[in-house]
Design goal:
Radius of gyration: 15 Å
Number of domains: 1
Largest sheet: 8 strands, antiparallel
Structural class: alpha+beta
CATH architecture: 3-Layer(aba) Sandwich
Order of helices and strands: EHHEEHEEEEHE
CATH class: Alpha Beta
CATH topology: SMI1/KNR4-like
CATH superfamily: SMI1/KNR4-like
Number of strands: 8
Number of helices: 4
Helix content: 10-25%
Shape: globular
Oligomer: single chain
Length: 164
């Protein structure tokens, strides 16, 4: 899927390790993303890759540098990202899991709720939701832009970044 585009991988991930993490977060990942983790366990891309997404009716281009993995270095470990964004800082709703990042700290995340299971979104840290504010928390995905309706579709839309 992305194997030939990853310059650094995080070692292997067993089905048992993946299932343990899924139990910990209370959600199972879609089959296409599970296959990616079991095949490559994430990694950094060998060159900058970009994608387009709809940000409030305006198409924008964003990038991805790293796909998180299980047991990866701290900055690229999906378990640590979950700990940060869900347990320690309450920055994402529980059904939104960070699966990668861009160079600026924004996250590529996956929705795991029933209504949008497997959708991939761009999570903008500049416009985060304040979950301690009941009014703000009514729209928990307002800082997210839809990228693709599946991980497979997301990977298919990635293009090398072209510098002018």
């Amino acid at each position: 899927m992305l194997k030939n585009k990853l310059s650094k991988e995080w070692g292997s991930c067993t089905p048992q390790e993946l299932e343990s993490f899924e139990r910990n977060i209370g959600f199972r990942f879609p089959d296409d993303y599970r296959a990616f983790i079991l095949e490559s366990n994430g990694g950094t891309l060998d060159s900058a890759m970009v994608f387009k997404c709809d940000n409030k009716g305006r198409m924008i281009e964003e990038g991805i540098e790293t796909f998180y993995g299980l047991g990866a270095p701290n900055w690229a470990d999906i378990q640590r990202a979950y700990q940060t964004y869900h347990i320690n800082q309450r920055r994402m709703p529980d059904y939104l899991i960070a699966i990668g990042s861009d160079a600026g700290g924004n996250q590529i995340a996956m929705l795991l709720n029933n209504l949008a299971f497997g959708y991939v979104v761009y999570w903008d840290h500049e416009n985060e939701v304040d979950f301690d504010d009941p009014e703000d928390a009514k729209n928990p995905l307002r800082n997210c832009s839809l990228i693709a309706k599946s991980f497979t579709d997301f990977v298919a839309m990635l293009q090398p970044q072209v510098f002018d």
